[in-house]
Write a structure and sequence with these properties.
With 366 residues, the protein is mainly α. It contains 15 helices and 5 strands. Bound molecules: tryptophan.
């Protein structure tokens, strides 16, 4: 019996952060020179609106890559929402809000080469999941550190099989369009390793002469981890420590007023000893491009109060055009619909082609 596709290969290697950083650096150098060599695929679960952590951590990176001329696919991973939570009532509204956030942050569907789509509407993509499932072992899926963390974080008692399998579905998200560049954060690296393994094993098993799939590379965002306004945990809407792109200016001021600082009036950038103050400085720095030490020097002995008012002003200024664009798009639901419709149409065309190739090499043509 032939089981070479799994046994003959090494196991999925999780935990190659340094290697990923090094690969990212090389790609960053090459991107402006050869944007058309790449096809970027990235995405989000539609679980809520986006905040400045997303803006600095991933959205700005996507906008930059798209503006460099890299064909860009953005998947809205609605099926993934079902893996770790019961609520599904808001999926379609969240999806709409996600598209509004993307476009407001600068992703421009009118510029071409941009496909935004929910994967639930692209059957040929989903179908790739089935052969892909035969290329990994249960043990490999079981070891995925990000899945383990999510199970812990969600406090799941009965874990549905979708939870273990969604990284394979994610491989279909990436490979349906032969994406070879995946801008992501560190937590997604294990999933990307599964995608790379699946691509390699698929080619090895079914397409020795002419590989069907590329082995996609992660592109790690340069932004450091952004903490919430409490300075102690990751920024997230559910923790109430996030400035949302969709907040008003007054809400932003009020939220930042409540941010934690310390009692030393002289503001300094020292992430180890003064995490709260340093995180606020980092946010100013990400918004203005100024060095965080220089921001601290500018505030001097103005204390937490001055730091907070500076941050509120800076963020409100940065977000003003984004929020204006948001309001404009909110008032135009037909446009959002059309972006999604066009995205689905384009994604399906590509997915049909890929599935055709996949069937051919697997000897499943009629
Ligand atoms: N798993 C990702 C997250 O939780 C979302 C996602 C789904 C994704 N498919 C993807 C990210 C493909 C990058 C590429 O945020």
């Amino acid at each position: 019996m032939e089981t070479r596709a799994i046994e003959g290969d090494d196991r999925v290697e999780y935990g190659t952060f340094e290697a990923a950083v090094e690969r990212s650096r090389k790609i960053e150098e090459d991107l402006p020179k050869n944007p058309k060599k790449y096809r970027a695929l990235t995405g989000d679960r539609p679980t809520g609106r986006l905040h400045v952590g997303h803006l600095f951590g991933s959205l700005q990176n996507r906008v930059r890559i798209h503006e460099l001329g890299v064909p860009t696919y953005v998947v809205i991973a609605d099926y993934q929402v079902l893996t770790d939570r019961d609520v599904f009532e808001n999926i379609s509204e969240n999806m709409r809000q996600l598209v509004i956030d993307y476009i407001s942050a600068g992703l421009d569907p009118e510029a071409g080469n941009l496909v935004i789509f929910p994967h639930s509407h692209v059957p040929e993509l989903n179908q790739l999941t089935l052969p892909f499932l035969t290329l990994v072992t249960n043990a490999e899926l079981d070891r995925n550190p990000t899945v383990k963390e999510e199970i812990q974080a969600a406090g799941l008692k009965r874990i549905n099989a979708g939870m273990y399998v969604y990284p394979v579905h994610q491989a279909a998200d990436i490979l349906f369009c032969k994406g070879n560049l995946v801008p992501v954060g560190k937590d997604q690296l294990p999933h990307l390793e599964i995608t790379r393994t699946i691509a390699r094993r698929f080619n090895d098993r079914f397409a020795r002469r002419q590989p069907v799939f590329p082995e996609p590379q992660p592109l790690l965002s340069k932004a450091p981890v952004i903490l919430g306004l409490d300075g102690s945990q990751k920024m997230s809407k559910s923790r109430g420590n996030a400035v949302m792109l969709s907040s008003t200016e007054d809400e932003t001021v009020a939220l930042i007023k409540k941010a934690k600082t310390d009692s030393d009036r002289v503001v300094t950038f020292d992430p180890e000893k003064r995490p709260e103050v340093s995180n606020l400085l980092l946010l100013v720095s990400l918004a203005t491009g100024e060095d965080p030490h220089a921001v601290a020097a500018r505030i001097g002995d103005g204390g937490g109060g001055k730091l907070k008012s500076l941050l509120a002003e800076t963020l409100n200024e940065l977000l003003r055009p984004i929020r204006a664009k948001r309001r404009e798009l909110e008032a135009n639901p037909d446009y959002i619909q059309s972006v999604l419709r066009n995205g689905i149409r384009d994604a399906r065309a590509v997915a049909e082609q890929t599935l055709g190739e996949v069937r051919r090499v697997m000897n499943m043509e009629i």
